[in-house]
Write a structure and sequence with these properties.
five-stranded mixed sheet; three-stranded antiparallel sheet; 17 helices; binds protoporphyrin IX containing FE
Length: 445
């Protein structure tokens, strides 16, 4: 009998090779965090387009580099419940982990507030503009910044203002949010002072505050604002949804919108600093319009800023992979995938795949500026696809265009431009969200 050459060299599960090199307990996580693209390239070269990666506590995930797998994000027998197993303390009960009608009901109660009309009616662009302006002016005054901590801090301010948190409460929210994040990596030791105990206390504090917001929103129904809009949409909905769903999803909004957008914003500045012609094109556009947009209707005036937002995300997708699980046996190309299989859908790989993009490794605004068709699912794959596609897409688009135009106007007026002062490729992280190094410095001179 002829043996498949892979069989002799590699362990197989369901006929799919297991990537070697996993460590006890943490599996391939160190390689996934530090250099996911390299790991995927090596696996593709040695094992082909389907292989198992070991995600430590989350177990083995079958990773597929064939674009066919993208369709599984819309498949009715594919569930996102695996995300709850990966991060139960922090994401349990939130939209990303729900499926089918429970997901639809919860999402329907929230989504309107995040569509262009909802954002415009809530005055989100007007709310964000002065916060962004103040931050880029401060960068100008300082002349040099460490970019990721700065965009992280700015994004927290924007997210908190979106939720209507009063300015005097921001430091406490900041502290609690940082403690909440410890739940993602906390070892399972529940003793006083441990990250798990502190993280849970912070989560309970944030949830209690959210319940108060919900009560306030009901008491002052005439007020506008995102939480008010979410509460009234929830209360109008025909399905009886408990406030617990609303509370969990307010927590999700904090988490989902923060690091992803902060990372994209930081990459935007890095690309503008290392590509002078990009900066010149952006400044020209900002000068021509002369003001920071505040509404979605204004965004059509900023094609260069929009292309910059899309190309930055394509080259540096903030969500590098999506975990899923099959609930029934299904077919993927020539393969049979058994029910209960954990899957890893590597958005990062598809974002720069030659099968989906021309000259995928080149940063080209022209691919967006010269396109004639509408934006399709592949063009916004960095936001996922199917029922769980990112609810914050329109919000991110608005805030990143606002940010880039405010940056261009402020720096140009002062006669300076961004300059990269560190190696942008060193110290990158790819999981749980992908981000540049915390240490990259940008000068404005
Ligand atoms: C550049 C920034 C962002 C990126 C790249 C991004 C990416 C994603 C991706 C890939 C998903 C799909 C997850 C899955 O299918 O399992 C998702 C879902 C989600 N995102 Fe975002 N996101 C960003 C910003 C935001 C913002 C600003 C918000 C809101 C404030 C937000 C809220 C959500 C929510 C609530 C979901 C879950 C939707 C559902 O399960 O129905 N995201 N995001």
């Amino acid at each position: 009998m002829l043996l498949n050459p892979l069989n002799r060299r590699h362990r197989l599960r369901y006929d799919v090779p297991v990537m070697p090199g996993a460590f006890p307990l943490v599996g391939h996580l160190p390689a996934i965090v530090c250099d996911l693209p390299r790991l995927l390239r090596r696996a593709e070269r040695t094992l082909g387009s389907h292989f198992w990666l070991d995600f430590g506590r989350a177990g083995h995930l079958m990773t597929c580099l064939d674009p066919d797998v993208i369709a599984l994000l819309r498949h009715k027998h594919v569930s996102s419940a695996l995300i709850e197993e990966i991060a139960p303390e922090i994401l349990g009960g939130t939209l990303v982990t729900l499926n089918g009608s429970a997901h639809r009901q919860a999402r329907d109660g929230i989504k309107a507030a995040f569509l262009p009309r909802g954002l415009t009616e809530a005055g989100i662009g007007e709310l964000f503009e002065p916060v962004i302006q103040a931050r880029v002016q401060a960068w100008r005054d300082r002349g040099e910044v460490t970019i990721l901590p700065e965009t992280g801090d700015l994004m927290l301010k924007l997210t908190f203002s979106l939720m209507g948190i009063p300015a005097q409460d921001l430091p406490e929210w900041h502290r609690k949010y940082r403690q909440l994040l410890q739940l993602i990596v906390a070892p399972p030791v529940d003793l006083p002072g441990t990250p798990l105990r502190r993280g849970r206390a912070a989560r309970d504090w944030i949830d209690a505050q959210s319940r108060q917001f919900i009560r306030d929103a009901r008491a002052h129904a005439a007020r506008t604002g995102l939480i008010n809009d979410m509460v009234s949409a929830f209360d109008r909905s025909d399905d009886a949804l408990s406030d617990d769903v609303l509370v969990a999803n307010i927590r999700l909004l904090l988490l989902a919108g923060h690091e992803t957008t902060a990372s994209t914003m930081a990459w935007m500045v890095i690309e503008l600093a290392r590509q002078p012609e990009l900066w010149d094109a952006l400044v020209e556009e900002a000068q021509r319009v002369g003001a920071v947009p505040t509404r979605h209707a204004d965004l059509a005036q900023f094609p260069v800023a929009e292309a910059l937002f899309r190309e930055t995300l394509r080259m540096h997708p903030a969500s590098s992979l999506i975990p899923r699980r099959t609930t029934q046996e299904l077919q993927l190309g020539q393969r049979r995938i058994p029910a209960g299989t954990s899957l890893c859908i590597p958005l990062l790989h598809f974002s720069t795949s030659a099968l989906l993009h021309e000259a995928p490794d080149q940063f080209r605004l022209a691919r967006w500026l010269q396109r004639t068709g509408p934006i399709g699912p592949v063009d916004m794959l960095q936001f996922g696809s199917g029922p769980h596609v990112c609810i914050g897409y329109h919000l991110v688009w608005l805030e990143l265009v606002q940010f880039s135009i405010a940056l261009a106007l402020t720096m140009h007026k002062a006669g300076v431009r961004p300059r990269l002062l560190s190696d942008a490729e060193k110290g990158r992280r790819y999981y749980p969200t992908a981000q540049p190094s915390m240490k990259i410095r940008i000068g404005f001179s």
